[in-house]
Design a protein that fits this description.
4-stranded antiparallel beta sheet, mainly alpha, 4 strands, 12 helices, disordered N terminus, 358 residues
Length: 358
């Protein structure tokens, strides 16, 4: 009873931490407004407002089509527009190469052996959640001038490093497990939503409600059946990152990168570059999205079969906190039974020889 009460008391704070991160992800779907001065407009385009929240900007194009302006309809002021590269770089620039190396470095181990990597896996869970939150917060709040892609990339990866360190330590390991489940659901939901041009559901906020459902399911699976949830989440997150890396090589910033910015970025200063241009995934991007979804059960089953041990390798006197619920206790008990059986092989063989001789 003392053990179960200790586990439940340490479990509740981490559950609240995971849910708070979930709510932060959902809150980042909202837009941010910018202002300054005003021009004169002949052609008005309102067709993209279904993908916007709060204010419905008006896109005004000059009669000769050479000048496009975004207006705030409530103030009739110009909304200054920025490039909206969101830290992804251009083609194979330095930030683009850094992101490319990052997604493969984190994604491949999770996809192939996440259930075996223990502290690396929990560290990646917290680190990736921190990266998503920090990146989305910055791209939705920067001004039209914004930050350079390299600076935003460094900030995002610094958030990953800090989160990884926390998740690898004992204090953050349970949070890492729970956040990995949330990220697994998020990665599946994002791929489904990005399969269709202009997102799966025409009403923008409805896509985020769908993502919330996937994140809650991912968290629930981890809580209900931990090993199944872990192998599934590792396969889901790993396959997503690998697919993103392949797409960055093949389509650079015009494939999944555009879809992610279209889904996460609702900064008014990026309206023209993000919402007005829309999201039109190339065929190869749609194939990669579908193939990576199909790879999830294959990778999860392979990890389950190849790595049969518990998620946490073994308790030591310096590492006595519980990391994997009842599955770990069962596995450790089995280890003790095996050690007991192998400790007396000579006695068993002597008894068997006596019985056979008689």
């Amino acid at each position: 009873m003392a053990v179960s009460s200790r586990q439940s008391s340490s479990f509740l704070p981490t559950l609240f931490t995971a849910l708070s991160c979930l709510f932060v992800l959902l809150a980042l779907a909202s837009a941010v407004s910018c202002l300054p001065a005003s021009p004169s407009p002949p052609v008005v385009d309102l067709s993209f407002n279904e993908h916007w929240k709060r204010v419905n900007p008006i896109v005004v194009t000059s009669a000769d089509g050479t000048n496009t302006t975004v207006l705030n309809p409530s103030t009739n002021q110009v909304i200054a527009q920025g490039p909206a590269t969101d830290g992804g770089g251009v083609d194979f620039s330095v930030p683009a190469v850094i992101w490319l190396a990052f997604v493969f470095t984190v994604g491949v181990p999770l996809a192939l052996a996440g259930i075996r990597l223990w502290r690396v896996t929990t560290g990646a869970g917290v680190g990736l959640a921190a990266t998503v939150c920090v990146w989305a917060a910055f791209i939705n709040t920067v001004s039209a001038e914004g930050l350079s892609d390299l600076v935003l990339t460094i900030i995002s990866l610094a958030a990953f490093a800090i989160g990884f360190l926390i998740g690898a330590l004992n204090i953050g390991r349970m949070t890492g497990i729970l956040l990995l489940g949330v990220l697994g659901g998020l990665s599946i939901g994002i791929r489904i939503i990005l399969l269709r041009p202009g997102l799966l559901i025409p009403i923008y906020v409805a896509n985020w409600f769908l993502l919330a459902v996937f994140m809650i399911i991912g968290l629930g699976v981890i809580l209900y059946r931990q090993r199944f949830g872990l192998v599934s989440a590792c396969a889901a997150v790993g396959s997503f990152l690998v697919a993103l890396g392949i797409d960055l090589v093949l389509k650079k910033q015009s494939g999944m990168s555009t879809g992610l910015r279209f889904l996460f970025d609702r900064n008014s200063s990026h309206y023209l570059a993000i919402v007005h241009l829309g999201y039109h995934p190339p065929l190869i991007t749609q194939i990669l999205l579908g193939a990576s979804l199909g790879a999830i059960p294959i990778l999860a089953f392979a990890q389950h079969k190849i790595f049969r041990g518990p998620f946490r390798p073994k308790s030591t006197e310096f590492d006595s906190d519980s990391a994997s619920f009842t599955e770990e206790n069962i596995a450790l008990n089995q280890e003790k039974e095996t050690e007991t059986r192998t400790a007396t092989p000579a006695k068993d063989s002597l008894l068997s020889s006596r019985f056979s001789s008689s």
